[in-house]
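Support request from a user on the community tier.

User writes: "When I paste my structure tokens into the form, the page sometimes reloads and wipes my input. The last time it worked, I copied everything first. Here is what I submitted, just in case something in the input itself triggers the reload:"
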């Protein structure tokens, strides 16, 4: 089973190319023009075990919104494509990830029902060059495009950088667990996800 995908998106606001291997070694090449966002995507790829190449150019003279959103769209579509029919996977995943004083929990269901409940409890307006509101938006958009259920909560923390990084890592670990290949066929009473 090869779980690879490529995806592109070209609009008047962004141009994005992406290659994804869900069963990689956590190797990545990320360039979005947003340093903090690049760092978070690298954390995601590393801890999910994805090989990820993502290049994005966007209208950063406006702000970061279109770039973050469109990266989530492209990544979500690629994840959905790579999962294919979602046969022989664990389906459910949950994980906690600490970063110093911050602690996050992610719970994922890879069935094709879309829900995203995100509570990051951030205090700042921006972290580096990314608006904090766009971090929650990234996860909601990713869940919608990948057709998955996600509950993501920062349980505690003081430093917003730590909170967000722990959230990305918790998501990565939970996804890795949910996407793990099993030999049981479909994990659903319906017979398909």
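"...and here is what came back when it finally went through:"
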């Amino acid at each position: 089973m090869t779980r690879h995908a490529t995806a592109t998106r070209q609009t008047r606001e962004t141009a994005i190319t992406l290659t994804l291997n869900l069963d990689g070694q956590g190797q990545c090449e990320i360039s979005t023009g947003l340093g903090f966002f690049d760092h978070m995507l690298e954390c995601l790829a590393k801890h999910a075990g994805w090989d990820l190449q993502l290049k994005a150019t966007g209208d950063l003279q406006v702000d970061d919104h279109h770039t973050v959103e469109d990266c989530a769209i492209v990544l979500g579509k690629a994840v959905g494509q790579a999962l294919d029919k979602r046969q022989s996977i664990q389906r459910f995943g949950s994980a906690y990830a600490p970063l110093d004083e911050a602690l996050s929990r992610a719970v994922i269901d890879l069935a094709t029902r879309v829900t995203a409940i995100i509570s990051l409890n951030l205090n700042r307006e921006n972290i580096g060059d990314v608006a904090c509101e766009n971090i929650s938006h990234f996860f909601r958009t990713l869940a919608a495009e990948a057709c998955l259920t996600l509950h993501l909560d920062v349980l505690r923390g003081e430093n917003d950088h730590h909170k967000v990084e722990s959230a990305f890592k918790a998501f990565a670990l939970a996804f890795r667990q949910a996407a793990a290949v099993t030999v049981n066929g479909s994990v659903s009473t319906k017979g398909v996800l």
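Agent notes: The reload is a front-end session timeout and is unrelated to the input. The first helix runs from residue 35 to 48. The chain has one domain: 4-178. Escalated to web team.
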